[in-house]
Amino acid sequence: MPLEYLTITVRFASYATLTVLFGWPLFAVYALPAGLPAGIPSRRVLALLALAAAVFSVAGIVAMAATMAGSAFSAVDSATIDAMIFETPMGSAWQVRMAALALLLATLLFGDLQHRPSRLLVSAFAATALASLAWTGHGAAGEGNAGWLQLGADVTHLFAAGAWVGALAALLQLLGRRAIDATPAVMVVAHQALDRFAIAGTIIVALLAGTGLVSVWMLVGPDHVFDLLDSEYGRFLVAKLLLFAAMLGLAASNRFRLTPALGRQIGSGVEPAAAFAALRRSIFAEAALAAGIMAAVAWLGTLAPPMVM
Q1: Whole-structure pTM value
Q2: What is the CB neighbour count within 10 angstroms for residue 158?
Q3: Full domain range(s) for residue 110
Q4: How many CB atoms lie within 10 A of CB 59?
Q5: Are residues 131 and 1 located together in one domain of the fold?
Q6: Rounded Cα gap, residues 124 and 143, in angstroms
Q7: Rg (CA), the chain
Q8: In total, how many domains does the chain have?
């Protein structure tokens, strides 16, 4: 596999694992009813995600070292890797990420995810690891106050994206079974979780839109907005925005149409299998769009934006 495609794959995998690690335990804190295990991530799943994130982080730092040295991934020498880890801002961010993942694994080993403080602690360590990804992208390239604004927007964007993706992971667990196999209790928990996510979802969308506008302004610039399709960066950015619009449409349908329909059927005693199945299909589609967005973001990180060309 060419080094460029390997880098994109590793970036995508890092985004996917770290957003779920951050957002799923957080969702279990604010959206899931207390005292019920449904929707809470298992210790094994989170541990596997943390270990996978660590492996992808190692592959990522080796890929960056190979790019810096102009060598193949398998031919990069240890001195170049050491220089990348200990002498660059990206290496410092990598060290923070690995330390956060180690602390996360320790929390999983000694904590109890049935208790909300443990979930919050896992989410906090995952947040630190997720934020470190901003130092491997365009957000870390700015200077002065503008650079800090850009970096802050990228970190906030990552947190908002992680909260949304993590919520989808929890909802996939709740809604992933066929309607015919879902118990009434699971349907009730799913409806309550979706209902509680409504306010958080509004905040998430506002943060994504606001920080996205900051990034577009600083990386694309007002002079290049109308010629985005003329550059590869612009085409991937447009693709990301279209996927985001489709995801937003599904989320709005879930909030204003499908979730109330499930609630009405549960409240009236009508078998809610149809509403449950419709929500299940919608959440799966939303998760697929989220994966597409993360793939686009992973590719965008390897391209030069119009403002630096």
Answers
A1: 0.90
A2: 24
A3: 1-136
A4: 17
A5: yes
A6: 28
A7: 20
A8: 2
